[in-house]
Design goal:
The chain is of the alpha+beta class and 235 residues long. The chain has one domain: Lipoprotein localisation LolA/LolB/LppX (outer membrane lipoprotein receptor (LolB), chain A, Clam), CATH 2.50.20. Helix content is 25%, strand content 38%. It contains four helices and twelve strands, in the order E-H-H-E-E-E-E-E-E-H-H-E-E-E-E-E. A hairpin with a 5-residue loop joins strand 10 and strand 11. It is globular.
Length: 235
Amino acid sequence: MPVVTGVPVSRGLRPGTGAHRRRTALTATLSLALIGVGPSGPSGPAPASREVLDRIWRGVVQAQERHASGCGTLTEKRVSPLLVRPLVMHGTFCAAGFDLFRVEYKGPEPARIIYNRGALNVSTDGGKRTEAFDVSRAVQRAQRYFAGPHAHENLERDFRVTVAETGDHYALLLIPVSGRIAGRVKRVAVELGKLDFLPRRIEIDGRSGVNSIFEIQIERLDAPLEKDLFEVYRP
């Protein structure tokens, strides 16, 4: 992940908190980007799983076209060499397309993360302290990599993709084999609902020893959203 420089909007965050929450937000953004992985090439799945992967890709595209927004609950479990015990955070989220995203984590360390077209806000202390970051370049690079005109070549060059089908979901496993991401990430696992092709679980295993698992429960699709739900400070 590229490092971004924070621009304090109010009095700033406690040391380390901004970096911690920013990593959470950017990890979630990467996870969502990886859901849209399309059919892979020679280094991808075996022929037996290619038909399933094609079916998943078509289903994900149709789901993106069918739903303008989604809201629900999110649980993140993080394991790190720096933590005495696993960190578990519960929260709610809303997303509208790829440009609008909001997560609110409850205690023990409540925080609010909002992404709006290149601007990332991280708030703590009940919204009294907020940092704003310009992550537009990082997001644009990720979008070009995973959804641009050369996405197919990028994936078949840099990932080994396998896919499995169970009773109620699809499971994709992405193993980076080259490129910048291979130096940072060991594996990414994504589970999608078999009927709606929406995300249920995302796991990112980093080479630093940090492992994050996101359990996702989508509760509302295409519901009316508050006008200021994704309002942010611009750095």
